[in-house]
Write a structure and sequence with these properties.
With about 240 residues, this protein is mainly beta. It has helices at about 1-15, 65-70, 145-155, 205-210, and strands at about 25-35, 40-50, 55-65, 75-85, 90-100, 105-110, 115-120, 165-170, 175-185, 190-200, 210-220, 225-235, 240-245. The chain contains four helices and 13 strands.
Length: about 240
């Protein structure tokens, strides 16, 4: 079950952190991704959302498939909405339900002036630590919720907005940072590389296992915009990847 829990954490937290810092691009996005671990398909993730002149809505789901799906049914269901400005996404509400196969948790976050409040759910750390002091949401102003960050990264968008990432993500219990370091253009493709770093709210064993997750995102042209086709991250469980179908 540790691999299942790790996979959920990687998909929901790491992928969620790959936020683009460029201007939100109006339009609809509908995408389905195969999730693979060391080359083996372990699940599927969907992402759907809409950006209009002054707001956005998004939803994402993940569920295990293949051999892992036969052993344990695990996944998540995330929804988010908020406002957009000329340069960024501003979350207003976020809801999550996560099942790692051995434990279920949920969370409801609402935002006032960019500051999150936990208004419900059974949010719990991935690995509870009795000596750990919970983070105070009132001190997490300016952070993005996981789905807003995920949608910001993977929605169809202009090439100019890619690879400009340096954001902090707060899911109600944990804080992490995503920073993209390089951009490479190979023909029509754009590849962004960077790292996801665990900052606070994680147990001592989680931090000991791995703190920094190097990643890359490959975008290709499609429908007049750039579309995320492949996401790769190096983890203690092996290479985890998302492939757009």
């Amino acid at each position: 079950m540790r691999v299942i829990a790790g996979l959920i954490t990687i998909t929901a937290l790491w992928a969620a952190g790959l936020a683009a810092a460029g201007p939100p691009a109006e339009g609809d996005t509908t995408a389905r991704f195969d999730v693979r671990l060391i080359g083996v398909k372990v699940g599927e993730m969907t992402l759907a959302g809409r950006i209009v002149a002054d707001g956005y809505v998004a939803q994402s789901t993940f569920s295990t498939r293949g051999l892992i799906g036969a052993v344990a049914r695990a996944g998540f269901d995330l929804t988010s909405r908020g406002r957009v400005t000329a340069s960024r996404f501003i979350p207003e509400r976020y809801d999550e339900a996560i099942n790692t196969g051995s434990r279920a948790s949920s969370a409801r976050l609402r935002y006032t002036g960019g500051v999150p409040r936990i208004t419900g759910g059974t949010l719990a750390a991935a690995e509870p630590d009795p000596d750990q002091v919970p983070l105070d949401p009132a001190r997490e102003g300016g952070t993005l919720d996981p789905l807003t960050a995920l949608f910001a990264a993977l929605h169809d968008q202009p090439a100019a907005t890619l690879c400009n990432t340096d954001v902090t993500v707060f899911d109600g219990a944990r804080r992490s940072r995503i920073k993209m370091a390089t951009r490479a253009e190979i023909g029509p493709e754009v590849i962004c590389t960077g790292a996801y770093t665990r900052l606070a709210g994680f147990s001592a064993s989680e931090l000991k296992r791995q703190t920094v997750y190097p990643f890359s995102v490959r975008y290709t042209p499609g429908g007049g915009r750039m579309q995320a086709q492949q996401v790769t991250v190096r983890t203690t469980y092996g290479k985890a990847e998302l492939f757009r179908r």
